[in-house]
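The protein record passed on for reference:
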Amino acid sequence: MKHRIFRASSVVLGAASLVLAPARANFTEINLTPQANADIQTYTGGSNYQLGGTTLNVAGVPFALGQYDTSSNPTGAGTTGVVQSGGGDTLFTFLMAPNTSATEVYTLMNTAWGSSGTDEANIIVTGSHGETATLDLVEGQNIRDHYNDGFVNTLTDSSVISTYFSAGSVAPTGSDRLDRQQLVLPSTFSGDTISSITFHALSASSPAGAPFLAGLTLANSNTVRDDPSPVVPVLAASALLLAARFFEARRTVCESRDS
């Protein structure tokens, strides 16, 4: 007697298609508007920059561009606000919301003017248990003049990613730019949260340079997946594979009996 047995091949294919989605970063964009003290729209070629109050994406990392609010322009309309160094050694601290965690910190930083080799600034990340990580910004290495003219226009750090602007939008090339730096946090931050991030400006003059912060974003690449329940597909795949083996075994037994 012949038996019609469901073949296992389609089951195996179905199981094989259920795989874990790749991990993706969870971003926290910091609003710079409350501490913005300058408008780069007024800098040399500054009208080329994208306006504040919008999001700028640099190689997959989003940044919330700030606005510069003044008594004459309380909404900051038509501005791109930055935190600009001034008066020499200056600290600007951003307190993080409770339970903020990160594996990387990204900045958008450039200078007005700038002499090669000048220690322009530090970005200091502090964890809730007191641990710290520091990104040093040196003119010509990972930070440079925002405008392509007679000051430093090149970088030696290949990890820095540049965005160019023209007529208020991102462009393939342009005289105005914002450069993205990355700080990968060490293992001492694992399982901890971030308390604060400090922009420590070390220089504020011509020709040495005056650094400014135009964007600040935290990324946590440990916790988020495209599939919110990655265990379910794994269990389903395991069950289907077991079913495939069961049906294959039945097919072998039935063919043996019919022979």
